Amino acid sequence: MFKKVDVEVFPEVIGSLTLQGKPLADIKLKRGYQYSGVMEEKKWDYTTTDDEGKFSFPEIIHRTSHPNKPFAGTRISQTIKVDENEESDIIKAAKDEYSEVILWGSISSGEKHISYLAERLARLDCDLANEAIRNEIIDEAFPSGVVRYQVLSICRWPDLEKLEIEKRKKFD
């Protein structure tokens, strides 16, 4: 009845996991997404950091007719975190301090990847010593006006964060 389209749910993810700059090897990570109105629960996939603490996840595209239904929205919750069953001593210590270790948490909207989020997901630099902070990413070129995306993360993007501070000054 409604034509199916490809919804770009999660762009390719490339990152590294460290503790105070030292690579963390063999740490199991999980990535989850939930497409509002389409999925009742998050769907998860997994990866493990290599000897240099590097990890990646492939792009996810979901074929669905949902965006073509009347009044349907496209909101996708995205999460990347250390697997709660991870047993390494470093992760156990981090979990003692925090209930869970979230590398990335955001909500995406639309059928295509949001360039501001995809750019960050392509170079996650995550250090367990970092406090999780809420990053505000401003998209001034959004068709219906300025949009602010919220990302909760222990990852950092120093060069991109400088640009966001300047944008915030402009729009606040």
TrEMBL record:
Pfam families: DUF6795. The keyword Hydrolase applies. One of its GO terms (molecular function) is carboxypeptidase activity. The keyword Protease applies. It comes from the Bacteria. InterPro entries: DUF6795. This is Carboxypeptidase regulatory-like domain-containing protein. It comes from Shewanella psychromarinicola. The lineage of its organism: Bacteria, Pseudomonadati, Pseudomonadota, Gammaproteobacteria, Alteromonadales.
